[in-house]
Amino acid sequence: MQTGQDSESGGPRIWGGTTLTERREARRAALLDAALDLIGEAGAAGVTMRAVCRRANLTDRYFYESFSSRDELLDVLYRSVADEFLGPMTAFTDADDPSRDRALAEILVDKVLADPRKSRLFLVEPYSSTGLGQTTIAVMPAFTRLIQDHLFVHIEDPVRRRLTAVSMASGNAGMFSAWLNGSLRATREQIVEHCVATLTAYRTIYR
Fold first, then answer.
1. Chain centroid offset of residue 152 CA
2. What pLDDT score was predicted for residue 162?
3. Count of C-beta atoms within a 10 Å radius of residue 180
4. What is the rounded CA–CA span in Å between residue 190 and residue 195?
């Protein structure tokens, strides 16, 4: 039953206790979560419009209400997950302070372990999914800038600082990808120790 303000009064139209905008947002969230589930099970290759709609129990009409294509859905999802990784990292990199290295490493490793679906999307799928190539290229500079502008501020030469940041970011991404896909067998503590040791080593390159 419809309740609340009608269109003549300019207010939102309510149906079942929710507005049209709220229902659209709920459907969009359901589609994104369905895509994450599929990625966790079969990778980005398993994400198709039909598969996402089946998992979310929605019709293709509602898919196209939120996304123009499968690639747009993956782009939105990848950028959202990237922001979730970038946020906690930023909180621990506001100074070139080696005492923060372990805390930063633990935050990053625990974030990787928190939701295997998101970690697979962010760290594994860019190596195998053609649909994520351009999105990854667009997103990763934010992480390298974070590293070069905060962790390696002692390196005066901007080219050397950039080289160090890009090398560390790409190396860690490859390491986490191997850890998640099972080709690298290591414990959480070993990964944390490696991240701390790597950061320490990179700090000494251009001193």
1. 23
2. 93
3. 17
4. 9
How far apart (Å, rounded) are the C-alpha atoms in residues 119 and 114?
A: 8
Cα gap 148→164, rounded to integer Å: 7
Percent of the chain with pLDDT over 90: 55
User: 203 Cβ partners below 8 Å, 6+ apart?
Assistant: 98, 151, 152, 154
The beta-strand segments (E) located in the chain are 2-3, 14-15, 18-19
- Specify the pLDDT at position 8: 47
**CA-atom Rg of the chain in angstroms:** 21
Residue 19, SS3? strand
Question: What is the rounded distance in angstroms from the CA atom of residue 159 to the CA atom of residue 85?
Answer: 26
In the predicted model, is pLDDT for residue 139 greater than 60? yes
Residue 24, token pair as written in the block: 């659209």
Pair 104, 92: CB distance under 8 Å = yes
Backbone angles phi, psi at 15, to 5 degrees: -140, 120
**1 class by beta-carbon count within 10 Å (0-12 exposed, 13-18 middle, 19+ buried):** exposed
170-187 pLDDT, tens digit each = 999 899 999 998 999 999
How far is C-alpha 166 from the geometric centre of its chain's CA atoms?
18
d(CA 28, CA 145): 31
Q: Tell me how many degrees the CA angle 43-48-52 measures, rounded to the nearest 5.
A: 90
97: its two tokens? 């302070």
Q: Which amino acid is at 165?
A: A
Q: What pLDDT, on a 0 to 100 scale, did the predictor assign at position 93?
A: 66
With a cut of 50, say whether residue 98 has pLDDT above it: yes
